[in-house]
Design a protein that fits this description.
Oligomer: homodimer
CATH topology of the largest domain in chain A: FAD/NAD(P)-binding domain
CATH class of the largest domain in chain A: Alpha Beta
Number of helices of chain A: 7
Order of helices and strands of chain A: HEHEEEEHEEHEEHEEEHH
Strand order of the largest sheet of chain A: 8-9-12-11-10
CATH architecture of the largest domain in chain A: 3-Layer(bba) Sandwich
Largest interface: A-B, 54 and 54 residues
Radius of gyration of chain A: 22 Å
Helix content of chain A: 25-40%
Number of strands of chain A: 12
Distance between the termini of chain A: 48 Å
Amino acid sequence: MGAGYIGLEMADALTVRGLSVTQMEQLPEVLPTVDPELGALVHAELAARGVEVLTGTTVQAITRAAPGQAGRLEVAATAADGAAVTRAADMVLVVVGVRPQTTLAAGAGAAMGVRGAIAVDSGMRTNLPDVFAAGDCVITHHRLLGVTYLPLGTTAHKQGRVAGENALGGTRRFAGSLGTQVVKIFDQAAARTGLRDHEAEAAGFAPVTIGSAADDHKAYYPGSHRITMRVTGDRATGRLLGMQVFGHKNAEIAKRIDIAATAIFHGMTVDAVSDLDLSYTPPLGSPWEAVQMGAQAWTRATRPR
Amino acid sequence: MGAGYIGLEMADALTVRGLSVTQMEQLPEVLPTVDPELGALVHAELAARGVEVLTGTTVQAITRAAPGQAGRLEVAATAADGAAVTRAADMVLVVVGVRPQTTLAAGAGAAMGVRGAIAVDSGMRTNLPDVFAAGDCVITHHRLLGVTYLPLGTTAHKQGRVAGENALGGTRRFAGSLGTQVVKIFDQAAARTGLRDHEAEAAGFAPVTIGSAADDHKAYYPGSHRITMRVTGDRATGRLLGMQVFGHKNAEIAKRIDIAATAIFHGMTVDAVSDLDLSYTPPLGSPWEAVQMGAQAWTRATRPR
């Protein structure tokens, strides 16, 4: 079973239904779309729930098991140190990422862009007259990266709406992605929006990423959970570039990343995040919302001394 | 026991500890800071949990009970139709709102503003040299209303930070309140940000308020809850002016109102809310976040035909 959100969600769903699950991941950590500090927390949750997690492990072959062997299939893999790893399985799910399927469009003469995806403008127009394209097959306009390829369901919905309105004569523009994502792993959730440190660096920013933690609500009120955050800001401008959050699924992780996504959408500085008037009651939050505390940790750590 | 957030939170806290609670509210509905449509849902939750709710009921006297009577106190009230209402009680909690305590500041010569609160500029400076003021005793700069009085803990924290930085020679400004609030009532939560219809009307906007509902996450995934929303927008400009949300406390009500608060902070139109790149996974959301569905319901209802 491969990496990424879909692999994690399948490991979760199959384990809770009583199946014994092994997750083989080629990269050094599960969920490579977040920093390793958060990936390790996801890994720990998988392990705590009984998923066998084999990172740095490359699947080489999936073969039918010999008669008399356990399971119907045998998965042969190579560990990071070169050692052979085999596991018997009744079912193998392969997650290998997304590639645009553009045969039809290419055959019609549509121009292609990055990663072989269909080139579209912000109105979702292809180079072909009256032909619009949207979804996993098209390039993605990103608010911080310019043109990239980043297929997500949320983005597809927005692009489809733009294409539909414009096909009817509208003038709507796709406002751009921030790569906002969330995944549930058993009782935990991991989310990100905007850029991570190395992505921001590659895009020409001067990023600093600061980790911090806060309670999802006042700890004196029962049922509070600790949230782990990583805030990426630009040292030159103070601009908020990205945020990553990990914590209990009831700790409003998804909507907290959405607050950050809305702040990034508007080009806020990390410091200005503390100006937002956000809600508070002890059972559901803090006078400074956790997202603001993560931003304040960044400001404290990057302040000239 | 009076109205408002504190009264509701006390009714919740005392009931879950096994006390029998009666809530007397002078106004026609509990939680008058949200529209009656949502107040009725709060009322229903109180009633379902065994709180006796008496709205339109004005407390006239609280007296010591005569020997032999049930309880140590007697509360005498008048119902909306003029009928006398009495209840025996061992404890009476009175919630009558907030008034600024400014004796010290007034004696020192500080100028007062609306509702008798201390007048401050956006740097939290009073008219007295080197004297700053912040919190429940000062007027509130509101992003949509200008100068008002709206004491909240979140606002006090922000104002205190501004006053502290400026007292040390800083140049920080309080960015203004949106009156963002949330309250938990047993297993439900009610939240608001920005202006309600009549508040927006009084402030010179041309408001339209549209109610809608959405699932907190994909209903095919277990544990979903229905969210009730009310979106207020300006018919003339399309600007998002306010939002109110009610639903299960695990339905991320507080952080959803914070997404709306962040959008209002930036002066977004209701329509543009759909441009925000917000997170999605079926157990925790929808491809269009509920806040975006509420905004889209507003746009559909107000579109010229």
